[in-house]
Sequence to fold (217 residues):
Amino acid sequence: MKIGILGSGSVGKVLGGAFATLGHEVMLGSREPERDDVQDWRKKAGGKTKSGTFADAAKFGDPVVLATAWSGTQNAIALAGPENMKGKVVIDTTNPLDFSGGPGKAPTLAVAGQTSAGERVQQWLPQSRVVKAFNHVGNTHMFRPDFPGGPPDMFICGNDASAKGEVAQLLRAFGWPDPIDLGGIEASRYIEPLAMIWILQYFNTGSGAHAFKLLRK
Ligand SMILES: NC(=O)c1ccc[n+]([C@@H]2O[C@H](COP(=O)([O-])OP(=O)(O)OC[C@H]3O[C@@H](n4cnc5c(N)ncnc54)[C@H](OP(=O)(O)O)[C@@H]3O)[C@@H](O)[C@H]2O)c1
Fold:
């Protein structure tokens, strides 16, 4: 498959590297695709990796992964061109974090309650099939998570059943055997606050070695 990644932060690089490891062609999109860290990522990830602008990556990929800072997400989508993602699956990893509390302070949610980042992204990409995923685990555990209690669970949501099926299949290849579909994109209202639990635990303990599991009997 051809995967376009919008975002050259930790999430974009980890997911892009994971897709490359699985043999997919990957284009990492950035406002500065020639930047040293992006080129270093390409050398390390090897395989069939490229870098380009947000628009290049949006045109290249299906699916497209959205992995941008919330404050820049609307701009990144505008730069990518919603028309370049028409009909495509867009995997939304974002959390609408507000870091205005300053350095060393846990962020808060800039968007919450009766709406969510997932819903905004779907509004900004009305002709794309947005699926929320990966937002509630640290980037170091996004690919082949290895925990003593077995694989953690990933919650997903989105309006298009076939898009969620495609993302669930990708998740299984990433080491998430049992993705949990919570319904339409509005379920992002609950999956995004779940990420805040992950983040507060990180700020309180200094460790990112945790993930969620839904216990059943
Ligand atoms: N870090 C994690 O472990 C983790 C886990 C789960 C979810 N998330 C979520 O995943 C998303 C990505 O997180 P991250 O830590 O990888 O990176 P990040 O530092 O939050 O975002 C980096 C990306 O955002 C882009 N960006 C920033 N401001 C922009 C603007 N004004 N216009 C256009 N693009 C802009 C950057 O573009 P350039 O390439 O042009 O610099 C870069 O590609 C975030 O929403 C985060 O909350 C993060």
Remarks:
- The chain has a mean pLDDT of 98.
- The first helix runs from residue 10 to 21.
